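We modelled the chain as a single entity of 114 amino acids. Its sequence is:
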Amino acid sequence: MADQELETALSLGQTMIDNEHYQESIDHFSVLADRYPGNPSVIFHLAGAYDAAGREEEAVAPYRAALLAGLSEEESLRAQIQLASTLRNLGENDVLDGEDVIPGFRCRLGDVVG
């Protein structure tokens, strides 16, 4: 798939989420993740699909993987915020204080919310 095709596929999956077709979006992004192993944007969108479906526990690992794989600055910021929200919803607030979550995470998130 060319870059434009990938962008179109990501947008389609986001539309599924927006229309509350959560399992369909998870399936869609899972197929993309198989086609683009290690693609940070695909992994990030898959995490968001799990999160939107209320499957927060399954969203944590892909959020972290996407951040470590090197998202764009905009997606990195979004992923950090969404990961922090997910961890808070899971009652893991104490994890947010540690640099071991994502190196540099606290500083960048602090710049946004502080």
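As a brief sanity check on the tokenised model: Residues 107-114 have pLDDT under 50 and may be disordered. The CA atoms of residues 17 and 87 lie 20 Å apart.
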